[in-house]
Specification:
TIM Barrel; globular; eight-stranded parallel barrel; 10 helices; 222 residues; alpha/beta
């Protein structure tokens, strides 16, 4: 049984829509602070603002890297990671190069992740690798998890929320089984209710990517 506080701590609240304004970022940060949300995930140009709003607060800041398609060059992702950390990001949610992965160029995918991990490790930042499971078969999900783990990632994450599908219990099961306890699993996309959030935590997820955070937390049993 999870408490509202425990679920809030596991949430990465996301403000990532292209039309989100600076006021949306400020409002999101203040909600995270008030609700005890563990992490606030924002776009690269919003990191400094989010970090300023959450200064002297337990809520950490994550920045998306190579978002939402993952097809940026490794050097670009590494620079984006470095600048995000300089702006105050504690965590980096990077999108795997999905096209290269589906092409079978797994060495390029691993090096792509390693470039971001190298920047993160210098600053003590966490790296979560977004697999975009909607375009992967079950064996490919497992293979992508192993690549992320080999590259030094701290988490594997299901989805950007901008692909063709959300997290699924089936994919989470594969991811948790593949990475074991050494790498965390984050369910993202479609987590819009208390019941869904708790179900993923019970499956073994350590983090939840949520945009409807207030709705999820307000759905907790009294």
């Amino acid at each position: 049984m999870f408490t509202r506080e425990q679920v809030a701590k596991a949430i990465d609240h996301a403000v990532l829509k292209p039309f989100a304004t600076s006021q949306d970022v400020i409002d999101g940060a203040r909600m995270c602070k008030e609700r005890g949300v563990g992490n606030f995930c924002v776009r690269p140009t919003d990191v400094a603002l989010a970090a300023a709003e959450l200064k002297d607060c337990d809520t950490t800041v994550a920045c998306v890297i190579g978002f939402p398609h993952g097809s940026n060059r490794p050097e670009t992702k590494a620079l984006e990671a470095r600048l995000a950390i300089e702006d105050g990001a504690d965590e980096l949610d990077m999108v795997m190069n999905i096209g290269r992965f589906l092409s079978g160029d797994h060495e390029a995918v691993r090096k792509d992740i390693e470039a971001v991990v190298a920047e993160a490790k210098q600053a003590g930042a966490l790296v979560k690798v977004i697999l975009e499971i909607c375009w992967l078969s079950p064996p490919q999900i497992a293979r992508a998890c192993r690549l992320a783990e080999a590259a030094g990632a701290d988490f594997v994450k299901t989805s950007t929320g901008f692909g063709d599908g959300p997290a699924t219990p089936e994919a989470i099961g594969i991811m948790v089984k593949t990475v074991g306890s050494g790498v965390g699993v984050k369910a993202s996309g479609g987590v819009r209710s208390w019941e869904t959030a708790v179900a993923y935590l019970e499956q073994g997820c350590k983090r939840l990517g949520v945009a409807s955070t207030e709705k999820v937390l307000d759905g907790a049993p009294q």
